[in-house]
Amino acid sequence: xxxxxxxxxxxxxxxxxxxxxxxxxxxxxxxxxxxxxxxxxxxxxxxxxxxxxxxxxxxxxxxxxxxxxxxxxxxxxxxxxxxxxxxxxxxxxxxxxxxxxxxxxxxxxxx
Amino acid sequence: xxxxxxxxxxxxxxxxxxxxxxxxxxxxxxxxxxxxxxxxxxxxxxxxxxxxxxxxxxxxxxxxxxxxxxxxxxxxxxxxxxxxxxxxxxxxxxxxxxxxxxxxxxxxxxx
Lengths: 111, 111
Hints:
The complex is a heterodimer of chains A (111) and B (111). Chain A is mostly beta strands and 111 residues long.
């Protein structure tokens, strides 16, 4: 089955700096890669996703890149703000509902 | 609120007791998923329904766990003879395609 690894486990940046979180996956059949943000005590919320027919996707300050050959994908947050502080999870799915999540990255944005 | 809802939000039980959780998906979603999340980890897949049919179960799901979705709408997850290791957040998600939307979760504490 799919195995997703996520790095780093914690990330601290100054407000206004960029943050990058990286994930690798093992199943070459995976074709859907969402990113979720989870604030303390709250549900995971989808912030952006990418499918394998696209190499990059951007939504305001958030972008995701996908390298299918290397089986890795990354989340980029620019101009970070304190409200970006949360745990971020990447996930990968081969489209058969078997979605596997990374262990999460705790992002802290210091004002 | 038309999102995924779960009930109860918190459950404290004694070891050996049975517990049941409920999930109400987004109304037009035919797919429903249960996950377990422990502190510092990403959601871990437990089981998946398409309409009323349970199509996948994780091998991690012991025979003390059972899930139903009798009418293809809400779902229940029952844990029999709870153990302290069952303490976790139980998340439900629903989808009509790839993108899964999560409920707020039920936090189970087994004493």
